[in-house]
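$ fold --in a.seq
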Amino acid sequence: MLIGLVGKPSCGKSTFFKAATLMDVLIAPYPFATIKPNLGVGYVRVKCLCKDFGVKCTPRTGFCDGETRFVSIDLMDVAGLIKGASEGRGLGNQFLNDLSKADAFIHIVDISGTTDDEGREGKGDPIKDVRMLEEELDLWFFGILNKAWDVFSRKVQTEKSDFVKAVAKQFSGINVKEEHVEKAMKKLKFDIENPEKWTKEQLKEFSHELRYLTKPMIIAANKIDKERAEENLKKLREVFPSVRIIPCSADSELSLRQAAKHNLIKYSPGSKDFEIIGNLNKKQKEALEIIKKNVLLKYEEGTGVQAILDEVVFSLLKHIAVFPAGTNKLTDSQGRILPDCFLVPEGTTALSFAYKIHTDLGKNFIKAIDVKTKQAIGKEHRLKNNDAIEIVTK
């Protein structure tokens, strides 16, 4: 799973990325500080099965605090996008190519409105920023479709090619599947028998639907602790009532994560509090108290960074967490207890989960066992969040 961080220059993408991954990336107060994409690992929270089974797990990847399992996901921080990116302006072509394999986007918005359209210090408009990015992403999809539409539409009509398959193939490089094309067509009800008669506006509408289905997006209202941020957040929610918008302070999360890394505080990502465990000077204590007062205690999601990652994976992409395990033992060949936790789409069956773990398990599948209930389940059984499953093979 790959989540792309998008937004105009200087909105806080790299700070968000570093706060989520603790990777050493350049953070600078000028446009296009990020040129090549940064790839790293972030984590989402899952209720661990430690207490259910009375054990202490030893994850192969990620970590566990005894109650919450942090499961890894891939994050990408790309160059900032400005108006005209779909036509190559700024680092537009590179930006869009980098994003082609992303499953979803987190749009980092400077909710304080202290940077202009191109990321320079000045007056900005978060509402305008959201509209600009949505438009550029739609134009990206439109460009791919429009580039070969005349030839493509005639071929579909004269050769009676399968429209759905043909469109999915045209967009295969950016993860568009046949099911996405079918959903878009079901909603729009355009004439697929005569696609050469589609207007430019219909092509744009179709492109928008494909983008919406294949690159879902959440808004991170960043810099929420700055002046005018709350006022702008209220306006943004009024203009985009159907969009999930979560206030966040990536800078605060980064400060807390770094302090925890150096054993100055005890802090779990997503928590609304921290515990001082190291020797802090007066300035450090004051800085942490400001974060607690202005961010942690003020907003339901704390700094918002962890809540946003969780929301993307579990609500936007509708994934669940499933643990491979055994009815007689919870360890792998190396003695690790509940070493793995997989993030899979809702509706995943026992058989498809077996293939997810290893191809041989899928090929030799006989049945699965719900480790919690000890009951056998068939290959078409749909798994639930926090299931522990044993795969029985021949």
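$ fold --in b.seq
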Amino acid sequence: MRELPQFVNEGFYMWFNPQEKEEYYSTPLFLYGVKREEKEKDETRLYLKLEKNIFGKRKNKYDNEIRKQPSTIYIHYAEPFGMFLMRFLNADLSSYESAYTTFFFAYGFELIKEYAPYTYLNIQEPLSKEQFLHILKDIYETSVDKLLEMQQQFRKAVDFIYNLNNNNEVIEGSTYSKFIAYVIKNDLYSYSQDIEIILDNYIKKHHEYQYENIQELIKRIDNKDSKLELRNVYTSDKLSNICFIVLEQIAKESNMQIKTCQNCGKYFIPTYRLSEIYCDFENVDGTPTCKDKGANQTYKKKLENSPVLALYRKIYHTKYVYVKRHKKDKEIEKEFENWRKQAKDKIAKLNKNELTEEELNKWLTDNQ
């Protein structure tokens, strides 16, 4: 039986954690204009964040040197469940720069080897910015037609399964049943052929941890130490196959849904509630997400239609200005913070129908 490689110098490996709503992958990358961050003090998971002005001037001469970054299975990249497919569905493939910044910066070119020029497959030496952009453009021009076709195929599949974008084929059934039926009836079936599943087992765990104190071992397992968890790993040399795997995993989850954002139109998976209508993708320039914009618009409409919330904003503004004019008076600042917390608590109760508008209006009037 094939074992997982210790170091991933080429190829792509992916596995899933539906309970934590995360997916993990390991792939070598040319990290140009991308930050690798650790979160929640978990040294086994890395999160990629695209830098602003990615194709602009670098900070210093050393930043202009780009190396291929090998990865390991135990120190892997982590993203929200389904993000790989969401990135591909939403990728802007209109230019080599936008293709990189919307998709390939996170996954590398390992999955388009079949289209990439042979001379670029095994680059290990550091590259300059100019060399990197030349390679990026060459690979893009070689593969863009196939990528656009593939993107359209998966968009059609998702639209059918989740009834999106005014899809006329509204058919009853579970998402997984609809996924299987669509695969059988359409060309998507061909993308299930070149996938290898590496079955996880306890043999390697036994060799590595048999001498560890059993109480410590139990504690690590209870704390969900990823080094001790068993998960089957999927690997393929083709982008289409990995997209197929991710879509299948999403379709299997009955409490997970793919939607299109009512603000920007991008495909997204709701984070907390299935009723969410706005995506929460971060913008490289730091501007508010669609979810933030939607929340602000909803709040403004509420203010327009609710006299009591308009009264709250009026009193809040008056008190805020008064505090700013008396910056040195800590007692005034303390009173404002206390009022603000009470007001927020009462508005929260109003939204939960635990308080009426009349009751909130009376409190605001009494505590101006």
